[in-house]
Amino acid sequence: MSFLTKTCQHVFLSATLIISGLAITQAGHAAVAFQAQDSQKVALARKLINMDGSKQGFKQANKFVIESMRSNMIDMPDEFFDRLSKKMDNYDYESQLASTYAQVLSTDELNTLIELYSSPTGRSLANKMGLLTERIALQQSQISEQMIQQTLAEMGMLD
Predict the structure, then answer these.
(1) How far apart are CA 101 and CA 40, in angstroms?
(2) Contact between 70 and 81 (Cβ < 8 Å)
(3) How many CB atoms lie within 10 A of CB 67?
């Protein structure tokens, strides 16, 4: 793989991480507004989060991000990835997700989703969320890589 292709991959990865960081920051700012929300709605959101597999999905996505970074940042010491992985694993996603769920979903929607995830079908779906997230992230990475390669080829920038 050419230096230019590697550089584009690093730029793409950096952009992805920056966007993720901005999303987490925005969620953090939203948490301040979230404090004023109805505690019953927040409790429903937390209940849903513990049922729907979204925390599992975040953990799977984190593993994918770390492995992708590891393969693209070959000069970075393993200690960096180990520390980053621990930080990501210990992050309180539940609070962030509860804030987002409570802001976006109505009480009726939260109750309906809790009812869904209490059913056998809902529990099955929740158990598969990590795998779905992992596969979607892999597909997105592959699609992005194809687009990067196509764009570089169109611009005559490939070796």
Answers:
(1) 13
(2) yes
(3) 12
Q: What is the pLDDT along the chain (159 residues), one digit of tens a residue?
A: 554 444 445 445 555 555 665 566 565 655 555 454 588 899 999 999 999 888 777 777 788 788 888 888 888 899 998 998 999 888 888 888 898 899 999 999 999 999 999 999 999 988 888 788 878 878 888 888 888 889 989 998 887
Q: Give the residue from 92, 109, 104 showing the smallest Cα distance to 34.
A: 104
Rounded Cα gap, residues 98 and 144, in angstroms? 30
Cα separation, 29 vs 32, whole angstroms: 6
**Residue ranges of domains in the chain:** 3-154
State the burial class of residue 57 (Cβ atoms within 10 Å of its Cβ: 0-12, 13-18, 19+): buried
Q: By the 8 A CB rule, do 48 and 114 touch?
A: yes
- Name the pTM for this structure: 0.59
Coil, helix or strand for 143? helix
